[in-house]
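Q: Please design a sequence for this.
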């Protein structure tokens, strides 16, 4: 299943053939991935309280 996507990963310094890399796109994707990670991390906090017998 083709989604017309490409990897935007910086090449290593010893690579002979370079490919397209967009730093701005890499930073934006990293920002979104970190945000989603934080949201999923804090989602587990309220669910712990729901499992307590007092509730």
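A: Design:
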């Amino acid at each position: 299943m083709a989604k017309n996507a490409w990897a935007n990963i910086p090449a290593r310094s010893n690579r002979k053939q370079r490919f397209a890399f967009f730093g701005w796109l890499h930073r934006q994707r990293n920002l979104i991935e970190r945000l989603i990670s934080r949201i999923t991390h804090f989602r587990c906090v309220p669910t712990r309280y729901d499992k307590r017998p007092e509730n």
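Q: Thanks. Anything notable?
A: Residues 24-55 form one domain. DSSP finds one helix and no strands in the chain.
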